[in-house]
Amino acid sequence: MKKIAIIFVLSLIQIVFFGCGEKAETVIPTASIDAPTSDNTGAQSYSVNISGYAFDPAELTIVAGDSVTWTNLDSVAHSIVADSFSSDNFSTNESFTYTFDATGVYEYFCGPHPNMTGIITVTK
Measured in whole angstroms, how far is the alpha carbon of residue 100 from the centre of its chain? Predict the structure, then answer.
C-alpha cells in the first residue's frame, strides 16, 4: 500500500511540473498577393511569393517607378538574379525589394535554383 501511495505522489508531482507549462503558439506567416499598395508618389508595390521552388506570380506587369518585393516562403535560401540587379541569398520569411525605374522586360531567376524563373514587364 505504501508503494502505491509513493507512485501516486510521484505521478502527481510529474503532472504539476510538466502539465502546467504554457504551450507555445505556432504562427504561420503569410504573404499577400492581393491588390498592390501605393505610396504618396503614386508608385505601387507588388508582392511575389517564393514557394514550392517557384515564383508566384511568375509574370508581372508594372509601371516605371513601381517596386516589387519577393518574399521567401520556402525552407531554403533563394536569390533574385537579373541582368541589371541582383540580391544576396535570403532565407525563410525574408524579403528583397527592387524599384523598377526604367521600362523594359526584366527576366530573372533564382541564383541557387536557376530553373526558377520569372518576368517583370515595366511599362510607362
Answer: 21
